[in-house]
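Teaching assistant's notes for section 4

Start the section by putting this record on the projector. Ask students to predict, before seeing the second block, whether ABC transporter permease will look compact or extended. Collect guesses on the board.
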Amino acid sequence: MTDTRVSNMSDTATLKPDDRYQQLLARLGSRSFIEGLILPALGILVFLLAWQFSANRIETSLGKFPGPTQVWEQIENLGAEHKRERAKEAAFYQRQEERNARKLARDPDAVIKIRNYTGKPTFFDQIITSLLTVAAGFFIANLIAIPLGIVCGLSAATYKAMNPIIQVFKPVSPLAWLPLVTMVVSATYTAEDPVFDKAFLNSAITVALCCLWPTLINTTVGVTGIDRDLVNVSRVMALSPMVHVRKIVIPAAIPMIFTGLRLSLATGWMVLIAAEMLAQNPGLGKFVWDEFQNGSSNSLGRIMVAVIAIGLIGFMLDKLMLTLQKRVSWDKSAVLR
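Reveal the predicted structure now:
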């Protein structure tokens, strides 16, 4: 084995420049390289050209519709604003430390107070807020949906009892849930020193109510469709109900469960942006609405930056779920898309 490797390495090392060039051309012309890099890059290039061509011909009340060049300028502007805001925050805390140090020098027993920085959240701060909110709503939803879906899949009676409720509430718009959630949270969450802000809870619960159903339905379908041979093996081995669920049900239903999780996460991300716009809760949705209301010459470009960021984050969240599915799935050879 070692001799073979040494021989291959020596052969590679002794290749002539022309031979290496031919190998490079062969790799660049391979089907996997074309499908994995060339075709996506070509699609993006065509999209950018079509976008720029169309943007130059669209005139709005705020000026021309922003093309890729204008959007890139606004990305740089938003990055610069974020750096300036962080510098202001650092200076704010530095002044506090110096002031408190002088106070302690005069009176060692003095009570020191640290005030939080209350500057305007930047575009990147809004992204973090939205990600935390959708993560909280997604977690709450699936904490309910997966166990309930397993029970509905295993018990026909439970499914028949729950199905009318699922079918009634599944199509309800998040815009209908939001006012109800806001009123309930305002009436019940009355702590003097709350752990979570009410706006955060409103958005998270609204997300949870809307992304509950895809995971619940897909988990139920996945559990119901388990191979009967696996069920018979469990009966022959006299597995307890919990062991049956852990060793048979969940591994067999993983593909459908993750299909529901991916749909739920995509739904929750879309719902969150709409909820933040409607309720003016902190996040990307509020950023879009504020820029729309601002009506400056840069507003359309900034909104397009937010639109692209929303799409890219949704894409990355889906890829994250797909990667997680590959890690936990028992069938490593399955093709996942």
